[in-house]
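Moderator note: this is an archived Q&A kept for reference. The question asked for a predicted structure of one protein chain; the sequence and the answer are reproduced below.
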Amino acid sequence: LLVEEQNCLGGISTSGGVGEWFASLEGLGDIFAAVVRELENFGVRESRFFNPEYGKIVWQELALAAGVEVLFHASVVGVEVRDGRIESVRLACCSRNIEVRAKMFVDATGEGDLGALAGAEFMQGEPKTGLTLHMTLTAWLYDTGRPMVPYLPAGLEPLAGEADLPGLGAGWLVDRGRVFLNATKVVRHDPTDPFQLAAAEIEARRQLARIVHYAQRTRFPNHAIGGSGAKIGIREGRRLVGDHVLRGEEVLGRSEPLDFPDGVAVATSQIDFHSLTKAGKAGWRQRVECYAIPFRCLMAKGFRNLLMAGKCISVDQVVHSSCRMTPTCCAMGQAAGTAAALAANLPDIRQLPVGELRALLAAEGMELDPGKHTPFALHNTRLADGE
């Protein structure tokens, strides 16, 4: 059973509107390869960019073809735990409570909701301040074929110039006249707090209105909003503590790739640590050698049948800024799902021979040698004091 809060699969890359891959794309397993291939078959892939609307179709049909049962519009709201095992989860959907029992569970909620409800230990934000990486509501603009008259509702001030933009510029022209806006930046909001999350959505949409107003006055006079994410993009929520916490000191400053005997996925992206407090492009971007993600980072500490995949795995904030990218998360998902299937009848996930898991992942198109991957880095900046 695949439980999904939104009305489509694919997470931030579909319902969130983030039609951009920010990592190397090869050797990530046959599932991600199938997604790329199907988007190409639709003719909607342009290098690192793709059309998220087609991604919704692709992910759904791949899941159905694999025999997955999908439950949309459902949230995890309760967990029953006994002796280090999750016995069941309680879901809320259509004003109903649904109890689901299973042998294995994978937390791919992004914010570690399942693990937190189960009582798992977690980390969140910068150790001293608790500040997380900022949130972004993405949007897509389309060419209307005529000049637009820039307009702002009462109470919203025009952006005076480039220096006043809240986030990463004012859009990239991607394909067929469409512009991708990864441009809003909401800092100092906790994505796991309901009221702060709501406030972040409100602030992001107000920023979006001002950014589009600026874009229409400058680079994109004919463009209007064609769609925005159904939910604000959360770069960082909770990070569940696993049997190992992969830390920055292990990844940074290396001249060679970093491997582990229990590596089950490979991360390739640069450190992409945006400023926790400042607007604009402030932050720390740094190329790193490719590194393996140990299976120990996918096993929740103190639990026998709880795995995690994606943003909520067991890493520190610095490593998280690199491994949180969609292609890497897809590889983690395949690793966690494969492990769950292999270990379904074992008393403890740790009894699964990691060599057996790695062999099956390799047979399914996953290149587990970090040295055979290519580092991905588009920027190189340093974090200033106080950011």
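Archived answer notes: Residues 297 and 314 are 5 Å apart (CA to CA).
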